[in-house]
Structure formats: C-alpha cells, structure tokens
C-alpha cells in the first residue's frame, strides 16, 4: 500500500540466479530502474541475487487497467527461468465520514442493545473497535458483549453498568477515525412492593376506615424508568363495635357451713359480660367467711371430702385445657393462610348448582369427541333439514381459543342423521363447498347445507391457550348472617356466560365485579381458586375452604360441566353490611387474575342484562342490490367482485365465490356477519369510494363515459 506520497519498494530474491528483472502490468521495467546486489548465504554457501525497484504514487494513479497495478519478477540461471507471484500495489486511504454513526438509546434492564456502525470507505478496509467511556470494549472479557457481527456492538442483556458513552473507532494503515458518540441509558421501570397489612380501624367505636399501602420500590425506578401505575394506598370502610364493660351479677346464697367452719358465696361478671374490648369487673368473684364466730373446732377430712374435692379439681383442669386448645386452634387457623384442597373433597364450603344440559335423545358433540379434541364454542343449528336456498347462509360461531396455527388444529364438524359428527374442513383449508374465515373471537362461515355445526379444537402443543371468563356473584343465604360468594370459570363465549347469568338471576345472585379473562394453557396443570384478605374481625369462613382446586381435565373440558365453586362466609353481627376481599383465580405456574370484591350486603351492586333478541345488522336492501349489480357485471379487467373482496379484506379461498350465482351478495353476507357488533356502514362506504377512485384512474375519460357512482 502506498501511504500518502511515499513510494514503496518491491524486493525480489533468487538463487542461483544470473539475472533478475521486474515486469509491471505486462511490461518490462527498464534495467536502470533496478538496484541489484549479491551476497553469500551463510547456511548454504550459495550466492543470492536481490533486485529492488521503487513504485511511486504517480505511477499507480496513471495506470488505467482492468485490474490493480501489479508487478512480478523473472529470474534466469543455467537451469532455466522462474517467475515470482504477483505483487499488487494500491493507494491506501480512509475517508473522514462514517457511513453510519451509532445512535444513542434508552433500553430497559435485561433488554438487548444493538449499536450499528458502518466505518468510512477505505483501502485497505478499516478495522473497527469500540470504546466505552474512552476505554476499549472487548467481547473476549465479557460473554454478554459481541463486537464481531458486521462491525456492530451487541449487548445481549442490558445491565445498569452498561450505561455510558460509546464510540466506534475505525482504523487502517493510513489513519484512525472516530464516530459520533452514542449515549446508552439502561433504565429500570418501577415495581410495586407487596401490600402492607390492613391498618386497625380508625375508630374504636362506630364506622371508620382501614388503609393499606405499597411503595414503588420493587424495584425503584432508575435512570428515567417509568413510575408504577396504580394506587399506592387502598381504603375500605370498617365498623368497630363499641366496648361494653362487664358488671357483676348478684351474689349467690351462702353455702352450708363446712367442716372447716367456713361458708362461701359466688358471683359472675355477666350482667352484662364484657364485650368488644370492654373492661372486666373489678373485685373478687368469690367470698369466704367463718360461719361459727371462731367457736368451731376443726376435724380431720374424711375420705369422702377428699374424693369430692379431687374430682372437682380434675374437672376444672380439663375445662381449662379444652379452652386453651380451642384458642390455639383458632389462632393457628387465622395465621395459617391458604389451605389448598381439591374441590371435589369439600363438604362445607363447596356448593354445586345445576345447568340445563343437552336434550335427551340428541348426541352432544362434547360427549362424542375423543379426549384430545375439545369443543370451542356452542353447537349451532339452522334448518329445517332439506332446505334449498339460493345463496349460502352466513353463520358466526363464537370460540374460546387463542388462534395459532402452531398450537391449534381447529376443524368444523357437522352432525349426521345418525347423531354422529363428521369433519367438514379444517379452518386453514380452502374449499368450494363451504367458506371459513377465522377471527380472534369468532369463526364466520358460509354454508349451503342445513344442519348442526360446531368448532372443535385439537391442541398441538402445551402452549395451546383456551380463554376462560371468570366472574364472581354473591347473595345472602336463608340465614341472614350467611353470605355466599360463587366463582364461575366458563368458556369465553357469550353463550356460556349467558347460561351463568340466567342461573344466578334465578337464585338472586348479584355480579360483584366485572368479568375478567384468564388464559388457560393445555399443559395439564390445575386451576386454583382462593379467597384472601377477609376482614376477620367482621367475617369468618369455614375451615379448610379458603382455597379450592380443580384438575386440569375439569377446566379443559369445562364446556361439558362448567367450573364453579362457592365460599360460605358468616358475619359476626347482622349490623355488618360491608364486605371486601380478593378472589384469586390462577393456573399453577401460569396466568392469574384477581377479582376485587367491594360490596354492601343486601344491596344490588350490579345488574346483568341479556343481549339476546336484538335484530341482526343488515345492509339496506336497495344498497345491497345496487352493489351486486355493479360488481357482478364483467368488465375489461375481469370480475369486479374480486376487487370488492380485496377492499373488504376477504382475500383467501376466492375460488369459493367463483361458483356462486352472485359472488358480491355472498361477500356482503360474510361482511355483515363480521360486523354484527359494530354495524359499521362507514367502513363499507370508504371501501366503495376507494374502488371508485381506482376505476376513475383506469377508465378512459370521454364525454360518452358514464361516471361510476359508489356513494350511498
């Protein structure tokens, strides 16, 4: 390489050699440009001839050949001739400006950092190194850093120590160049700590407030990280019963004078007894006095008195032991936390209630499927059988699967005349007999044949997810002090939830919290439902019922028998009207949802209304006919209905529409089914307007041309 304007020397040695000449770019170099010398090799004793030439920058710049400037040397001796390999001569340089400078970034902790660098153009190509805060960064010392990938700097998992100023350093034999400095900030988003315990009621007597708090310190936000979202303080109302001090009852009558010349009497602190942190009675509950005025002579105890007093003492000890045992048991229960037991083993806290099942004599798909397949939504029937329609029927089936071709194999099935189920198609297939369009929560079908249809899913991997809708209802039981919380986990479809609403309405249940969605994986792990944070000074729950567990099979096949459980609570006083607690629903090692209950017992907090009976959304008939007339007519560019399907985002299995009498009518029926909830005619108008603009651009403009009008 020629650096700046300094010539380079090419040197050639040969032995034994009589003459050596250089040849550059195919031409011999003049002899007077050669400098030669001879010397003896001390090891072999042979003469070595060495020839040197200079190559200048001007020579290289003036050469305009198909390849780089090159030279080789040829040596002669009595043995013959020999050629050396070619030496290429190039002018070295390094541009000043980088083709791409690294850019500063803000990255969350454990996120990936990628700093791009494209060095300046140069000959030879520049080598790249990275500096952090002016110190060299090496991937050999830190496995978390990679500097070998196309000059880029990659940090696989960002750490707080990775924050700093990074510079890309490019160098070759000519010079070194520095890029602009990129500042990297590794930030930490804040996380909430655990809630503190509820504070004592703010008043000792009457209605007050309880509080609990949490802090954004788990972890605390750093380097501009986001502060925690949500409330740092929660409040609930509480009722503190006013203290009642104990009062002595009247003294009992004196006992008979004993052999010890004493008589006794008693009184108890129960008129009234102390309650709610009230004071005990002051004074003694037992009085003893001499009953003979000091004239009594004591005699020895007889064996009957000894036995009597021994029996009384043993009885008192037994009662005390029993009281201590009960107290310790209650204390252990209050501190024990959550007891996990299978829901089928519960006798006191679990209550079952029935739903209407499939009619007798009719085969249910849920009962006929193999274990590996599950029903993803309701069975839907249209008829009567043998009905012959001019156009396919658009049917929508709600489903509860998180749709993923990698995790689910979803099929459409139809019930046969002998009450068996036959597979019609996989939802990913294309068919001319029926059409299937899968959305996230619904499957839209175009069907020619009446019958009973259902969607069936076969999980391919453990990552297959079924959506569950969880809700909690509450009602006062026959005993005015008992309150029942009922938790339902059903398939996330309107039909399944409506069955729950109907059953709860019939028994006076009130929805206490908005239903939430739980993602349940097909990994054979069970479901746990637990109740937490019950105000123990106001409410109690039966032992061993604070957590109930359902097997994986019960939940995965819940379309056959919906998953539900109940928690029976008892208030200590009928004056208690406020209830606050948490219901945790979680899959073991999986997703969890919290239902927060704040309710006033005896009041209707929420109502649930049914959405059945609403009229179906339809495109006005006159507009539908006009659209079909326009797009079913052939033109020079083929069938316009294909463009209509494209603009309405119906782009798969178009061969199904080609065999229809009116492809546009079937496309519009499918569009209506997808937009039942929104009834959004504006989006249809926008699509037609866009098609109109395309036609205006593509059609020739002349006075005789008719303008296509797609507005409505």
From TrEMBL:
Protein's recorded name: Netrin receptor UNC5
Membrane topology term: Single-pass type I membrane protein
Domain Ig-like: 103-185
One GO molecular-function entry: netrin receptor activity
Ranges annotated as spanning the membrane: 306-329
One annotated Gene Ontology cellular component of this protein: plasma membrane
Compartment(s) where it occurs, according to its Swiss-Prot or TrEMBL record: Cell membrane
Gene3D superfamilies: 2.60.220.30, Death Domain, Fas, Immunoglobulins, Thrombospondin type-1 (TSP1) repeat
Keyword Cell membrane: yes
Family: Belongs to the unc-5 family.
Domain of life: Eukaryota
Phylogenetic lineage: Eukaryota, Metazoa, Chordata, Craniata, Vertebrata
UniProt keyword terms in alphabetical order: Cell membrane, Developmental protein, Disulfide bond, Glycoprotein, Immunoglobulin domain, Membrane, Receptor, Repeat, Signal, Transmembrane, Transmembrane helix
Record-level GO BP terms: axon guidance
Domain Death: start-end pairs: 638-693
Annotated function: Receptor for netrin required for axon guidance. Mediates axon repulsion of neuronal growth cones in the developing nervous system upon ligand binding.
